[in-house]
Amino acid sequence: MSMQNVASPAIGLTPPKRNSLTHIPGDEGWPIIGKTLEVLADPKGHVERNAEKYGLVYRSHLFGETSLVLLGPEANELVLFDRAKLFSSEHGWGRILGLLFPRGLMLRDFDEHREHRQTLSVAFKSGPMRSYFTELDKGIAARIAQWKAKPGAMLIYPAMKQLTLDLAATSFLGADIGPEVDEINRAFIDATDEQGALLSEQDVIDHMSFLMMAAHDTLTSSLTSLVAELAAHPEWQKKLRDEVSSLGLAPEQPMSFEKLDAMPLSDMAFKEALRLRPPVPSMPRRAVRDFSFKGFDIPGGTMVGVNPMFTHHMKDIWPEPDRFDPRRFTEETQRNRHRFAWVPFGGGAHMCLGLHFANMQAKCFARHFLQNLSVSLEPGYKPSWQMWPIPKPRDGLRVSVKPV
Ligand code: HEM
User: What's the 216 CA to ligand 1 centre distance in angstroms?
Assistant: First the structure.
């Protein structure tokens, strides 16, 4: 990992000495292993137990290093919005994603990150989005028709993974898209010329492979979660199917971009699925300077993590947090909520660049799936989820589908 991209040369990015964090409550567990095994075994329960014992700021030892966990909407705002440019994403995510995606967008910081993000955003402007939309819609319609032809038991997770991978390949590698892909490629090349070789060929490869990963794993997880909740809540399945029918499209007709706005219940249900099982359950950063939070002085170099999974289940914000209830996302209910209480897409400079893409894909999926199929779970079957690094049903999620 290079250290040249951070805000000032005075920044200390080596981890602080172990005893410089002993004023923070917490428990570092066994030497070397620390708390890593406990976290891997039950990430949600582990954080909840620690929060109960130590409060919203605690010390732990994860992946070979003393780290701080900062919990709740204020912590999310401090770290993600990062008004004071205090936190490095590169030196946070680097330990986890560095080997696979050393120069993906999330592994760049500050000025360099801003320039690359600006360049990459051309791929998410309205022209390219409309063309991905047409391809997504076609790809989803064809896949749902295959599912419909084989009604009965199916494992949703692997089927969804295949679908989202194929859709991401079509969108970002341009398997079928045509002239718009040329437009995006040209935009990348132009950016190279104007800004003095900003994007090398290697940069484009790095960004594209990162996009493929960012797009398909997160969507596989969240769409599986949505299907799981609709299967477990037939009353919501019916409400969403009614909404889809009211779009006035025959089952074989393509979706229209404009009709995406006429699916508020599907939007709320997807938001609720993302609340229950955020595909990125925690986000790491490394402090580039000293800072304080909730009365604690924290030295530069400290590894910190925020935790959407915990925030999304805080009882004082989300009554009965484990219950699926899309009504939490009516305009009125959302109005008085902290804007960093729901953060499946992060926030601030690194906020998910693909969030509109994700919403669009979720709605296209909901429309074709619900207009063609009904989904249910075997009586008494409760899927078990592995929550980290990405929420995933342990057995692939057995459902039964049948044509409606
Ligand atoms: C439900 C689906 C998705 C979820 C929950 C999700 C979540 C996130 C989160 C939490 C981050 C910020 C991480 C951080 O700040 O540490 C992020 C960043 C990113 N996401 Fe997504 N994502 C989703 C889908 C997508 C899709 C479909 C794409 C591309 C089409 C995408 C592209 C990106 C990119 C490029 C970044 C890096 C942004 C930056 O560093 O400036 N994501 N995503």
Answer: 10
